[in-house]
Amino acid sequence: MNLPLLTEKFNCTERNGRIEFEFTTQENDASKRIRPKDHEIFREFSFVKGRDVYIYGKGPNESYAALAFYLVLFQARKIECYEYNHLKRDVLIHDAEVPNAQISVPGKQWFEFAKQFPRDTINISRNQQDPEGYWEDDIYLHLERMGLPAGSGDSPAILVKGKGGPVMYAALACAAARLGYNELLVDKPKEENLLAFNERVAGRELPKDNTGVPPGFCLGILGDPCSGKSVFAQTLFNCICDLYPPRQIWVYDCDMAAPTQNWFMRESSSGDPLRVEAAIKRRKELKVREFTSQLELDVAQSLKNEKSSLQLVIADLPGGNHKVTPPQRIPVSRAEMMRQCDAFIVLCRKDKPNVFDDWVGALKEYGLENRVIAKVTTDAPKGPVAVSELAKTTDGLLTCEIQGLDREKGSQLIDVLKPTLEELGRELQRHFGQSYDVL
């Protein structure tokens, strides 16, 4: 293959004495969203044999994993990735010249391994020492010694799943290839099927086996723009995730036209004006002009898929169309998205007390008004962080008031809001009929 290879989703060039792969995907732009069949080109990369490889760019977990898996199969010499998170670092995930037996590694649990013929399973664990769960950089290269037992390659296939970043998936895929697995499978909660990668085909879709697994629940976060929905959804997750088994609670941003990604939340709370400005500029570039009906149906399907794999999905829902009078909070095309939510929390700015009733009225048009279980009033986003105790009205509606709900407050929000939001989390468990002894 002659380099460079350039597409709308993927670039491959030779530079600085190595082969560089860049992902240029964009989830909220259908023309730039990577599809399962797009992975087929990865099976043509035998030209990496004996070469150093560098992977970077914004790509999904399954694509990073698949690319790394094939690069090892094609005997790349070294593989290095750029990790797009708060650490912003290059990570070496494969070196054919460094035997693992010579490496001493810390004895931490980085993932759970289950051996079951014909398909073994790896479930990623969060690093409890890192605020976002990312692994330490000195273990990526030596995952075989972190918990994969000797002879773990007896099964022909291995399945990777769990909440982790693309480089974490890529490193595990490298380890799987080194151990002799013939097929890599990736389980992504928002997708209906597993994705499989082997020497014969890349991106084959296989049905998930959820037999005997009770369906999960979806909690929708509603509110007008600038009411703090995205900050609240992420803060709620951080405050109640310990109430659920690991990797069984998820936040899903449903506003595909203008997503509030984790990296944007992180950069906005960095306190560095230059990083905040760059994040705002980058987010504007990623916005699409229109939230199409197809994007809305994609979101509804993703929520349905996630409920089949997780115990709780927190859906950060779009705020509606406020360019018309009166505002259209739930367009007809978003009804299916709302129906996937088993309960709603409505956020209302204190200076707009009518908003709660307006949202309940919008839900009533689709027969969903009885799913509202909580009202959260927000006030003074730039002021000090404070929260009232959780209360319950005579008709059973949970209520509280939050001040200082602003993404720039970062971890301070978790510290202050956790007692109230954890109590809210326990009320949610009672509402959904859930009970977990995980603390």
Write the SSE topology.
Elements: E1 5-6, E2 10-15, E3 18-24, E4 52-58, H1 61-73, E5 78-83, E6 89-95, E7 111-114, E8 119-124, E9 157-161, H2 166-178, E10 183-186, E11 193-197, E12 202-207, E13 217-223, H3 229-240, E14 249-253, H4 262-268, H5 273-286, H6 293-309, E15 312-316, H7 335-339, E16 343-349, H8 355-364, E17 372-379, E18 386-387, E19 391-392, E20 398-403, H9 411-432
Parallel strand pairs: 3-4, 4-5, 8-9, 9-10, 13-15, 13-16, 14-15, 16-17, 17-20
Antiparallel strand pairs: 1-2, 2-3, 5-6, 7-8, 10-11, 11-12, 18-20, 19-20
Brief overview, please?
Helices cover 26% and strands 24% of the residues. With 439 residues, the chain is an alpha/beta fold.
Architecture overview:
The structure is a single chain. It is built from nine helices and 20 strands. It has helices at residues 61-73, 166-178, 229-240, 262-268, 273-286, 293-309, 335-339, 355-364, 411-432; strands at residues 5-6, 10-15, 18-24, 52-58, 78-83, 89-95, 111-114, 119-124, 157-161, 183-186, 193-197, 202-207, 217-223, 249-253, 312-316, 343-349, 372-379, 386-387, 391-392, 398-403. Strands 13, 14, 15, 16, 17, 18, 19 and 20 form an eight-stranded mixed sheet that branches. A six-stranded mixed sheet has the order 1-2-3-4-5-6, covered by helices on one side. Helix 3 (229-240) crosses helix 9 and helix 4 (262-268) runs antiparallel to helix 5 (273-286). It is elongated and about 70 Å long. The model is unreliable at 101-108 (pLDDT under 50).
